[in-house]
Structures are given as structure tokens and as C-alpha cells.
Amino acid sequence: MLPGILTDMTSSAGMAHIGVVGLAVMGSNIARNFARNGHTVAVYNRSYDKTERLVADHGNEGTFVPAATIEEFVASLQRPRRALIMVQAGAATDAVIEQLADAMEEGDIIIDGGNALYTDTMRREAAMRARGLHFVGAGISGGEEGALHGPSIMPGGPAESYEHIGPLLESVAAVVDNTPCCTHIGPNGAGHFVKMVHNGIEYADMQVIGEAYHLLRYAAGLDCAEIAETFRKWNTGDLNSYLVEITAEVLAQVDAATGKPLVDVIVDQAGQKGTGRWTVKAALDLGIPVTGIGEAVFARALSSSVAQREQTAGTLPSGKLASPIDPADRETFVEAVRRALYASKLVAYSQGFDEIRAGSDEYDWNIDPRDLATIWRGGCIIRADFLNRITEAYTANPDLRCLLLDPYFLNEMEGLVDAWRHIVVTATELGLPVPVFASSLSYYDALRAERLPAALIQGQRDYFGAHTYRRVDREGSFHTLWSGDRSEVEA
Ligand code: 6PG
């Protein structure tokens, strides 16, 4: 079919391959992406002017079927109908789902492409299943550009719905090594769960990059242009990734109004919409230590604690601080920061994959970690070269209990750990905060440890609460009669 706008509802009835509801930037861009790839796309927005604007501005990119009502929209879709919701997560999503479900028929498919909380997706999937509809919670990553040119797509929901939506979604996803960055992740909430953890990793990744920048600036004394250049160089090696690439761009940007580096005129309070926080909450429930992601979420929270920071900044005593890095040692220091960044980043990914495995076990999703590493190589915000190494690690050993145990990463850690320690010590002596560098190193050391102070905690718990403990040399549970003769009894 030739590009065009089909407005005559009698001729367009049942013609659209897919429909998009919600035409803010992400929704418009993904609708355009479908149209550009030869699909006839029905488009609907609560206020019709956005729909009109989309077809007026981009109608020449493919075939759009603008609909003024949800009923018209549904009627314009081929069966089984496929409607992709791109509205704000939460109540707006529920409202659109209800409207669509009322107008749809058995076997039709609703896809939620927003950043929904996976438990909401599980609830919605069950409710739609009861009505004979398919509900697919699909994580979509890549921001505005990704939506237009090829995002990474993480669809959950019933496996059989993937037969009807898979080829369509794959045709608009990013492609790496001839493989589309889209695959069925698992039933009900699996897609949104992995998107949530993707965002958690994104938070940690952004924070470690921030910590590296902060050290280069305030420990090594580099200026923004020099740091931008450093990140540009790093982006050609192990750290090659979208986030490192854009960091160089942001740091090189000069504010037109003041002539200062843009980063110096941006208020240093990081926002968050909630996916990072959800990742940590879910990890707490699953009992998985995602310390890097947790510290990254808390670092954003601390940055935004304005009233507290106003009182504490420059007031709390620092103690005796070390002197900044001698210019003669700069080069070595910069390389050590790169290694600390790389090591902390590996820990964040390892923890994220641990959480995904735990979620998959808890909800019987059967998520294959290789799939994730594969579809995160392109399109998404955390796309990075080393995801290839993660795919290889899980291909060699699908039951890998810790990513860091893979021979490739073990070898990498061998070369990183000394510098990582040095950087955490130096930052501490200089009084510069490195919450993710430091907590990731502690986590790593805890993983390495033969003995942990948890034995003492068990003793304390037994002392005040008779919670019992197990012994290293005998089976069973034991309790010491702390307020009696302190002999041990079997519990
Ligand atoms: C993506 C992004 C995207 C968005 C997040 C993060 O994968 O395309 O993660 O989903 O940028 O909402 O936003 P916050 O930093 O505001 O939580």
C-alpha cells in the first residue's frame, strides 16, 4: 500500500496492522517507526489535535489511520487486533485498557509499552485473560530516538500472543549482528520486570559514571573538556556504551548564556520517576542484594534532599583531608578511575541479573538471561559492548550463579581490583563521595569472604530473642541459655 492517510472509516475498517494509543513523543515516534517499516498504523489520542498533528507532520512517512474515537480506532484494526498503549503508567493505563477491552473481541491483544510496575501488569494480564483478551506488558527502552529508529523491546504476556506481535515488534526494534533486539521474555509481568531491572542497572551505571566524573574533576583537577575527551577515549575500549558516549557529549556542552560548561549551570538534584526505586523494593522482597542500584537510588534521593543539604553542606566536619592528585600522577589516576568504573559497573550488571533470576524463579517466568544480554546490546539506554561478553558467559554456562564467576569476568576482575581499591581509598581520603564504587567493592569483598560477621549476628539474635543458630560442625538448630548457665541446648 502506498503511503497515505486513510480517513474514510468504511475503507479503512480492519486494515491497520497495529494501533498506537497515546501520541506523546514516545507514542508518536513508535507509531512513525511502524509506519516507516511498511505497517499500516491506526493512531488514537485522547485529544484529537495530537492525532491530527502527527498525520499532518509525518503522514508522508507511511500509512496512518487516524481515529477520533477509541471505537473507530478498534474498528480500524486487523484481527486479531493489536493495540499498543503508550500512555503514562498508572491510572491512565488502566483507563485506556478498560476502554479498549470494552471495544475489543476475544483473542485481541493489548500491549502496554509504558514503564508499568510488573505487579500491575500481572493484575491486568489476569483481568484481560478472564475477558478472553491477551495482555502483553512490553518494556520498551531507548528514549525518543530509540522509539523512532529502533528500541530494545521486552514483551511479556502469553507466549501465543508473541506469534501475532513478535514479527511486528521485531521489525521496528534495533538490530545487532542481524538479531533484532526484541524477544518474548516470559509470561504475564516478566517483560515489565526485566525493563524495571534494566532501569535499575541504568541508575547504577549513570551513578558510577557520575562518580568517575566527580573524581576526575575534583581529585585529578581535570576540566570538563578534558573529562569529555577522557570519556570519549574510554568509549573506544571495554567501557564502550551509549551512556559513556552521551556523557562525553554532555560534558563537552558549553552553556550559551554564561560560557560555562553546561553541567556547571544544571542544578545538581537528580530526578527519578520510580523504576529504580521499584527495582530496589522488589530486590528487598526477593532478598537479593542490589547494593549498587540501591546506592544509586539513594544518591539521587540525597541530591534532592535540598533542605538538609543546605544545612549540612560546608558545616559537617571533614576531618583531615588528603591533597588532590599530583599532576605528575594524573595519568595513572585516570586509568585507575577507569578500572574502578568498569569493576563497579560489572557488579551492577551482575546484581541486576541476580535479581532477574530471583524474579523468574519466584514467578515461574523461565527467563533466559542470554536473551536479555542479547536484546540489550542495541536500542536501549544500557546498551554496551560488554553485553556480548555477558551473552557468551550465559551461553557457556546457563546456570552461572554469579556473572563475576565467568572466566572472562574473573580475569577482568583480576586486572581491575587493585585500582578499584586504590580509588575507593583515595576518594575516602579526599572526602569525595563514591557510594556505588565503595559499596560495590564491599559487596565484592563479602562475596569473596570465607567467613562473614553474620555468625556474630546469629549469636546476638540468639542472645536477645532465642532465635537459635546452626553450628558449623553438627546438624540441627541450637540455643545458648544466655540468662541461665550458658550451656547450649538443641532447639
Ligand atoms: C529507557 C529509559 C526510560 C526513562 C526512564 C528513566 O529505557 O528508555 O529508562 O524508560 O528514561 O523513565 O527515568 P528516570 O531517571 O526519571 O527514573
TrEMBL record:
Q: From which source organism is this entry?
A: Corynebacterium choanae
The residues that the entry says bind NADP(+) are G22, L23, A24, V25, M26, G27, N45, R46, S47, V87, Q88, A89, N115
| Active-site residues, as the UniProt record annotates them | K195 (proton acceptor), E202 (proton donor)
Enzyme Commission number(s): 1.1.1.44
Cite the PANTHER family for this sequence: 6-PHOSPHOGLUCONATE DEHYDROGENASE
Family named by the database record: Belongs to the 6-phosphogluconate dehydrogenase family.
Record's superkingdom? Bacteria
Residues covered by the 6-phosphogluconate dehydrogenase C-terminal domain: 191-483
Q: Which reaction does it catalyse?
A: 6-phospho-D-gluconate + NADP(+) = D-ribulose 5-phosphate + CO2 + NADPH
Look up the record and give one Gene Ontology term from the biological process aspect: D-gluconate metabolic process
Under the heading PROSITE patterns, the entry gives: 6PGD
Residues that bind substrate: N115, S141, G142, G143, H198, N199, Y203, K273, R300, R461, H467
Describe the task this protein carries out. Answer: Catalyzes the oxidative decarboxylation of 6-phosphogluconate to ribulose 5-phosphate and CO(2), with concomitant reduction of NADP to NADPH.
Q: What is this protein called?
A: 6-phosphogluconate dehydrogenase, decarboxylating
Q: How does it assemble?
A: Homodimer.
Keyword NADP among UniProt keywords: yes
Cited InterPro entries? 6-PGluconate_DH-like_C_sf, 6PGD_dom2, 6PGDH_C, 6PGDH_Gnd/GntZ, 6PGDH_NADP-bd, 6PGdom_BS, NAD(P)-bd_dom_sf, Pgluconate_DH
- What keywords appear on the UniProt entry? Gluconate utilization, NADP, Oxidoreductase, Pentose shunt
Pfam families xrefs: 6PGD, NAD_binding_2
Q: Does the keyword Acyltransferase apply?
A: no
Quote the pathway field: Carbohydrate degradation; pentose phosphate pathway; D-ribulose 5-phosphate from D-glucose 6-phosphate (oxidative stage): step 3/3
Where would one find the signal peptide in this protein?
none
- Supply one GO molecular-function term: phosphogluconate dehydrogenase (decarboxylating) activity
